[in-house]
Amino acid sequence: ASSVWTAASEGLLGACLAPQGASAAAAATFDEPSEEAADETAQARGPSPLLSSKEQCYLDGLAAKVRQDPQRAGDVLMRAAPAATVCAEWKDAASLDSARVFWETYAGDTRYFSLSRCAPRAARFVSHSWRPPRDWAQVMGEQANYAEIKATELTIVAQDIFAKSQGRSESLRAAETGVADGLGSWKDVLFWVDKCCIPQGHPLIKEYFSRLEDFIQRSDGMVVLLSWQYFERLWCIYEWASFLVYHSASNVQICVDYFLKPATQQLYLNSVEKFSVASAQCDVESDRAILRAKIAQHFNSETCFEKFAKVTAVALLAQTAVRRAGRNKSEYEAEFAPWIQMAERLGFQRLVAALRTARPMAWRVEAMRDSKDCLGHAAQAWLERYDALIMRWFEEQVLPEVFLVRDECVRGEFLGKPDVLNIEATPQMQPHETLPKCPACACAMQWSDSAEGVYAQGWDCEFGARCGATCETHGPWRWLCKTCSIDLCQPCAFRGQPLVPDPLPQPQLQLEPVRRRLLRRPWFVRSSVVAMEPTGQICGSGCGSLTQGRSSRSDAASSAVPLPTLLPRTALLASPAIGGKEAAKPLRACRQAA
Q1: Residue 182 phi, psi dihedral angles, 5° rounding
Q2: Which of 99, 181, 430, 577 would bridge with 151, disulfide CB 3.0–4.6 Å?
Q3: What is the dihedral of CA 289, 294, 296, 302, to 10 degrees?
Q4: Backbone φ, ψ for residue 545 (5° rounding)
């Protein structure tokens, strides 16, 4: 690290004060820190034994500039590290040794600050536990190196990001050639990593702590290096929850395949279920007060923070587990069912109902249907189709429940604007292409809190049968088409129309806006449709229950719908697993009639 600082110190100021891209204009007026300001800061904190006088002068002057213009502090302090400095491939021994030294440093080292550079945005915010779990060697073995695993997992993430940016399949990663079309390589992907994007051990670190949420909003997604003690660390879980306040859960990528095994599954379940702010660990105990103040600022209470963290953890880890549950029923019970059972114990019944709609075995069969070869590189095609089906299920069934809990737990002032990722983090798209389209006229909608005219009594989402969103659950802000008087909540706006159309007749969309709104059926009387994976057929008498075995070729045969099936959520909630014996009586009667 010292040699890196020496090589970079001459050009460090110029590189940081004149970044390329969107931040260049903002940095043009940011002059080199004056010697007077640097001297003033240096006298206040004293010299650092790890840095040269030139390096200390730069950081001290940077702190002085932040004090002079706090409004621009986010532009000044935002940094990112190229993947080449923090990642390594298994086959590259020299890079792997260097990356291992970086990740094995468990105490803050200010000299690593030079590995990052000023950047307007980062491709991914990296959240991780600095230290390995206490029982790492006993669980993973003496030869498993925690630092090397982190470096190589991030390499795969960087390669996938670069491959997608080139419009290629993940199976054709540009890492095979290193460079594609003169646009760089995966090594140019930018990560926000706390170890090198924050000057560890320097007084300027307080400014970075206070603006952590700003850096999160300036990241297009989050990568979580999820070891089983992650949910025992207060800093880690705050980064997790804070990111999900500003971004969709679909933008979180969990790197857990190396860590989550049969021997560690119960450790993950316990850490999520038993998480609390009071028992969470902090290496520096004084940080607990800082984090509790941040929690009080962004969440309605610590209880709400804990609930939001647990709901999102179960949802995202269940999404990871369902990928492993597609081979057979035993794998479903071993990998996926424990997360449903924990959600039941925690009382998250709406999330339980959403998770029970997963059909991993049917998805796997559907994904492999047209594949001639399912092994080796040829398997990448059906694996991508399998992942696409899982993502569709997650966004249509699980994500709405996450948004409802977010609206319940997060303070209203932090819910008044759309996801920065959906609106701002797609520079390859034109502004009008990033806005949701009206389902009736296909014109761009606008983010509005209008309460005039027909909206005096509030609004309800056009696809309320799927999400149940109203002004009471989501507040006044929503996506609005004034021409058609159509409202969409944030999840539905970017997810498109539901699998089953809204009961409202299509010609009625052409009516004048006021009349159309008055004639539309309220969301709470529409059928919310979810997917199931039963071993029977749907009864056609209207209750949505399942028939047992085969039926005759009469009315029952014509009214039954073959798999894949769709069930009303009301029938799902009335199932014996959720509603008990009394709730199941109508279902039994309907089966007998069929």
Answers
A1: 70, 15
A2: 99
A3: -70
A4: -85, 175
